[in-house]
Amino acid sequence: MSFFDLACRSCGSRRVELFLDLGEQPHCNRLIPPELADRQEPAYPLRAGFCHDCTLVQIDYTIPKEDMFSDYPYVSGTTRTLTEHFQDTARRLTAAYGLAEGDLVVDIGSNDGTALKAYQGLGLRTLGVEPAGNVAALAKAAGVPTLNTFFNDPTAETILESHGAARLITAAGVFFHLEELHSVCEGVRRLLAPDGVFCVQAIYLGGMIENTAFDQIYHEHLCYYTLRSLSALLEPHGLEVFAVDLKPIHGGTLEAHVALKGARSPADSVARLREAEAAAGLDRLDTYQAFAERVWRLRDDLVAALEAQHARGRTVHAYSAPAKGATLLNAFGLDTRLIACAVERNPLKFNRLIPGARIPIRDEAATPRPDAYLMLAWNFLDEFLVKERGFLEAGGEFIVPVPQVRVIGAQDLPR
User: Fold this and answer.
1) How many CA atoms lie within 13 Å of 386's alpha carbon, on the beta-carbon side?
2) Which class would CATH give 312-412?
3) Relative to the CA of 355, which of 197, 225, 283, 348 has its CA 20 to 30 Å away?
């Protein structure tokens, strides 16, 4: 047994056992500007462990949140898929909980305001809480009221005094980022109206295990949730999950609807997912140990596929430079020998280097086409297949690393 030298982030147990060591890795989103290309970026342990008491999967090393999130290169509005997902979520939640004009919606980790714009269109009051100054400025410029700070209990008290209680609090793709985990939960409890709902959307650990999506492990993602582990975190703070669903976004997302304890009756979906998680072994260490073994088989398959492209004299570019791409590249030892560059639509990333792998990021629109793209943002594959149909029909290929290595060409396109 190899236990982490830290207490569980949720329950405080000292029985958090290592199951996957991805080596020393730099902060995935600290992209390297040209003027710093000659300097060595710092690297930190990236290791995942399982808590034997509350079943939370977590990493052990914490890069301070101020270092990771005060300036940020990711913006929510880059892909059509994610924008449409937020619009659908806003319509569903507004209808389900009878939100009316003037009700307050607070979004934790609101980024560029893409999610809150959908609620504004429905006549609701909105407030974003976003620590990254650069993307908070984008949200404000787009007309989305935004506090440039971290959400925690003191922030919740400030919002309550100035804006009143929230009928809806959302946390989409950020709840696993939270260093001040218990202060955030207290803040949610404080800010939530008596009949209010807290909606958490977080990458689902069950989907990660099923898809061998190890690349979703990186330093910004401190925790990886199942319904069981999320409930164990929330319940001591007087919050309980009363309904749950699994959404396809990001390769599988847990959507948990949370209320003040006793405020709403649990739906059947809660018991069903608890049973499914137990049947899948998500409460057992051996499930995660088997997952780790599949990760290293995936490495061997992907390196072989890229070497085959190289041997044929074919050029390969990474299609986009997401945070999870840095995990994959660095864990598998990939660099510019096999991947010439990454192409992006997000101008915040242009002309920088992916940390560790040191692969340059280019403007997609100004970069000549390669023979093949490595699909680091595999979770948006369906969108990219439509967008790049012409490239594939002209003989190009997609190399998809997750859930298993596939090389997709024109022959694989739907008619």
Assistant:
1) 6
2) alpha beta
3) 225
Question: How many Cβ atoms sit within 10 Å of the Cβ of residue 268?
Answer: 8
Residues of the chain with CATH 3.40.50.720: 312-412
pLDDT at 175: 86
Predicted pLDDT of residue 319: 97
**Closest-CA residue to 279 (of 227, 202, 233, 222):** 227
pLDDT in tens, 143-177: 999 999 999 999 999 999 999 999 999 999 888 88
Name the nearest CA neighbour of 353 among 41, 23, 24: 41
Provide the 3-class DSSP secondary structure of residue 95.
Answer: helix
| pTM of structure | 0.92
Tokens 């010439």 found at: 340
Q: Are 183 and 236 in contact (CB under 8 A)?
A: no
C-alpha separations of 262 from 54, 148, 150, 194 in Å: 22, 33, 28, 10
In tens, the pLDDT along 368-400 reads 999 999 999 998 899 899 999 999 999 999 999
The span from the CA of 94 to the CA of 48, in Å, is 37
* Residue intervals in the chain for CATH 3.40.50.150: 69-283
**Superfamily of 69-283 according to CATH:** Vaccinia Virus protein VP39 (3.40.50.150)
Rounded distance, CA 155 to CA 157, Å?
A: 5
pLDDT band at 209 (very low <50, low <70, confident <90, very high): very high
* pLDDT of amino acid 76: 59
Query: Tell me, what's the pLDDT at 176?
Result: 83
Contact predicate 330/24, CB 8 Å: no
Contacts of 403 (CB under 8 A, 6+ apart): 210, 211, 212, 213
Structure tokens at 245: 């669903």
